[in-house]
C-alpha cells in the first residue's frame, strides 16, 4: 500500500502539471477568440494607423510565444496583467467580483451539506418505503429542471406574483449581505441540482455500505443500528459524496454565470461575460486561470478526503 506522504506528493505533482496545462490551454483558447481587441478599442470607424498604434501599445503585435512567456512569468509573481479596455489591473476585477460569488457559494454549501446528506440518509434508512420513494422522486424531478428555467419560475412565483422577494439584485451593489432578501432566490436555484445529486449519492453509498459483509458482522456483534449507520456506513458514503462536493464548489465558484446573469449579481460570472463581450483578453485569461486553479485545488482536497475515509478508493484513483 502506498504511504500517505508519497500519495500526497504524487497528487501535488499532478496538480502542478494540471496547473501548467490550464495556463497553456487558457492562453491558446483566448488566442483563438474571434475579433481583435485593437479594432474594438479603436471605435466605430477604426483607422488602420490607430489600430496599428493600439496594437503596438498593448504589445499585441508581438509573437504569441513571447506574450505567453511574459504572461506566465507575471502569473508566477501574482500579476494577472492589465485590462485592455480600462487599464485597471486584472486582479482588481477579480477582487470586485470575488465577494458576491463567494458569498453565494458559501451560503449554498452551508445549506447543501446538511440538506443533501440528510435527505440521502433519510432515503437510505427507509429504503423501498414511502420516504425513500418520495425523496427519490422529488430529487429526480428537480434535477431534471435546468437552472435558468427554475430561476425564471421562482421569479415569476415569489417575486412577480406574490411579491415576497426582489426579482433581481439591481441597486444593491456588491454588499449583498445587507440585503439578504436578494440572496434567497439565487441560492435556491444554486441549491436545486447539487442537493439532488448529493442526496442520491449518499443514499446509494449508504445502501451499499449497509449491505456489505463488515456491517453484517457488526450486527452479529450486537452493535446498535444507529452506530452502524452513522459510524460505519455514512463514512463510506462520504467518499464519493466528497468528490461531488468538490465539483459542486468548483461549479459554484466558476459556473454561476447563468444565475448571476439572471439575477443581475455583480460576481465573477458577470465580470467574465463583460470581458468576453468587450474582447478584454487579459481579464478573460486571469479569470480562467483562477477558475482552473480552483478546480485543481478542490479536486486535490476531495482526493484527500476520499483517501481519509476510503483509503482503497483513494489509492485506486
Secondary structure: number of strands: 0
Residue share in helices? over 70%
Question: What is the end-to-end distance?
Answer: 13 Å
Name the beta content range.
Answer: under 5%
Low-confidence stretches: 313-317
So how many helices? Answer: 14
Order of helices and strands: HHHHHHHHHHHHHH
Principal-axes shape call? flat
Q: Mean pLDDT, as a whole number?
A: 77
The largest sheet, given as strand count, sense and whether it forms a barrel, is: none
**What is the CA-based Rg, rounded?**
24 Å
Structural class: mainly alpha
Describe this structure in words.
This protein has 317 residues and is mainly alpha-helical. It contains 14 helices and no strands. It has helices spanning 4-31, 37-42, 48-57, 64-76, 90-125, 130-143, 147-161, 181-210, 213-220, 225-254, 257-262, 268-277, 281-309, 311-316. The chain is flat and about 85 Å long. 32% of the residues are buried. Mean pLDDT is 77; it is low at 313-317.
Amino acid at each position: 500500500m502506498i504511504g500517505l506522504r508519497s500519495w500526497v506528493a504524487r497528487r501535488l505533482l499532478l496538480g502542478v502539471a494540471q496547473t501548467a496545462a490550464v495556463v497553456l490551454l487558457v492562453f491558446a483558447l483566448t488566442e483563438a477568440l474571434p475579433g481583435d481587441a485593437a479594432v474594438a478599442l479603436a471605435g466605430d470607424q477604426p483607422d488602420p494607423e490607430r489600430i496599428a498604434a493600439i496594437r503596438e501599445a498593448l504589445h499585441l503585435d508581438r509573437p504569441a510565444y513571447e506574450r505567453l512567456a511574459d504572461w506566465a512569468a507575471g502569473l508566477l509573481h501574482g500579476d494577472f496583467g492589465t485590462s485592455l479596455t480600462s487599464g485597471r489591473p486584472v486582479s482588481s476585477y477579480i477582487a470586485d467580483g470575488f465577494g458576491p460569488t463567494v458569498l453565494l457559494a458559501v451560503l449554498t454549501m452551508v445549506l447543501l451539506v446538511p440538506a443533501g446528506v440528510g435527505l440521502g440518509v433519510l432515503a437510505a434508512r427507509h429504503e423501498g418505503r414511502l420516504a425513500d420513494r418520495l425523496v427519490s422522486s422529488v430529487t429526480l424531478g428537480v434535477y431534471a429542471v435546468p437552472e435558468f428555467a427554475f430561476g425564471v419560475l421562482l421569479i415569476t412565483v415569489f417575486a412577480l406574483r406574490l411579491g415576497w422577494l426582489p426579482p433581481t439584485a439591481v441597486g444593491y451593489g456588491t454588499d449583498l449581505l445587507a440585503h439578504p432578501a436578494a440572496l434567497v432566490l439565487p441560492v435556491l436555484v444554486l441549491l436545486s441540482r447539487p442537493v439532488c445529486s448529493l442526496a442520491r449519492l449518499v443514499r446509494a453509498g449508504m445502501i451499499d455500505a449497509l449491505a456489505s459483509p463488515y456491517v453484517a458482522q457488526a450486527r452479529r456483534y450486537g452493535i446498535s443500528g444507529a452506530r452502524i449507520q452513522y459510524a460505519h456506513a455514512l463514512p463510506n458514503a462520504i467518499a464519493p459524496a466528497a468528490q461531488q462536493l468538490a465539483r459542486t464548489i468548483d461549479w459554484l465558484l466558476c459556473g454561476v454565470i447563468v444565475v448571476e446573469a439572471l439575477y443581475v449579481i455583480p460576481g465573477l460570472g458577470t465580470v467574465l461575460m463583460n470581458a468576453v463581450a468587450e474582447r478584454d483578453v487579459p481579464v478573460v485569461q486571469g479569470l480562467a486561470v483562477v477558475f482552473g486553479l480552483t478546480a485543481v485545488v478542490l479536486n486535490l482536497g476531495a482526493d484527500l478526503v476520499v483517501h481519509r475515509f476510503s483509503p482503497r478508493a483513494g489509492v485506486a484513483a
